[in-house]
Design brief:
There is one protein chain. By secondary structure, the protein is mainly α. Helix content is 75%, strand content 0%. The chain has one domain. 36% of the residues are buried.
């Protein structure tokens, strides 16, 4: 009798669940294909060189975008894959810029690692701002979902009940993540520090951290999350984009390698949750900034003459 008393799911509910499951599966497969996972498999597993992969990733992302536009069941993902195509194109173009002879003349290694680092972050910050403005102009107010700096109250009572108090959780996250980052960076910390001589380097570290955290949170999280969360749900979107972000740190990130990828993925979940809960860029940016500032401070101090 208890079983008979349970409500029976309507056909429309089953169809909606099936449709959402299909979208989650398609988004997961598509995102992993355009992540650095294929590169990791080819390089680490098969020992192959992959200089052609960045452009191939752009082409695959564009095909996913076109496929989502043409296939009615996948239409809700078209905006997401459009954003990821643009992001993939940026990621393919940036190494060409920063490895060009022109850039080497503008920022020679003799200028010092912090000058080179800050110069690159100035460019990334400008590109991130232009990307956000263009996205808002093309997509309208819907594209600004996570780009506002102030927290936005959820529009429904259900969403309000799920919102966490990030004025507390954000501070806790900053303290814990800074402590863990400092512990990981401890072996690189110089034994002697002249604070007077270090001041200019520390200023550059602050600016570089602010620019890098803005660039990554705006372009790698806010832009795709605003288009992926509505069709598949905030939870799956946060985890999927955190995984994509973590895989992106496997080569050349700080931290890097398998451990770095796992660590950055976990941090990405925290940042994504903060963004989804507050509907704003402020807390994710602040948390990310605190982590980057810890890393760049150690880099700056280690780069000082005599360190």
């Amino acid at each position: 009798m208890a079983r008979l008393a349970q409500p029976i799911a309507s056909p429309s509910t089953c169809t909606d669940s099936l449709s959402r499951g299909t979208l989650i599966a398609a988004a997961t497969i598509g995102t992993l294909v355009i992540s650095r996972l294929p590169e990791i498999v080819l390089r680490e597993g098969l020992g192959l060189s992959t200089p052609w992969l960045p452009l191939s990733t752009v082409a695959i992302a564009a095909l996913l975008w076109l496929g989502a536009r043409m296939a009615r069941p996948l239409a809700p993902l078209s905006g997401y894959f459009a954003v990821m195509t643009a992001v993939s194109a940026l990621l393919a173009a940036l190494p060409v810029l920063f490895e060009s002879p022109t850039w080497a003349q503008l920022t020679p290694p003799s200028a010092g690692p912090m000058v080179v680092l800050l110069s690159e972050r100035l460019v990334l910050g400008a590109i991130g701002l232009a990307f956000v403005i263009l996205l808002i102009l093309v997509g309208g107010r819907a594209e600004a979902e996570y780009f506002r700096l102030r927290s936005s109250a959820p529009s429904t009572a259900e969403a309000l009940g799920e919102t966490r108090n990030w004025s507390v959780a954000g501070l806790v996250a900053i303290v814990m993540l800074v402590a863990l980052t400092a512990l990981a960076m401890a072996p690189s910390f110089p034994s002697k520090v002249d604070l007077g001589a270090a001041a200019p380097f520390l200023v550059m570290a602050v600016l570089a951290a602010a620019l890098n955290s803005f660039w990554e949170e705006a372009v790698f999280r806010a832009a795709p999350l605003g288009r992926l969360a509505p069709p598949i749900g905030a939870g799956p979107a946060i985890i999927l984009l955190a995984t994509w972000f973590g895989l992106g740190h496997f080569y050349g990130g700080a931290p890097s390698g398998p451990i770095g990828a796992v660590m950055v993925t976990l941090v990405g979940v925290v940042l994504g949750r903060a963004m989804a809960d507050t509907r704003a860029l402020a807390w994710p940016w602040a948390i990310h900034f605190s982590i980057d500032l810890t890393i760049y401070t150690v880099i700056a101090l280690a780069a000082m003459p005599g360190a």
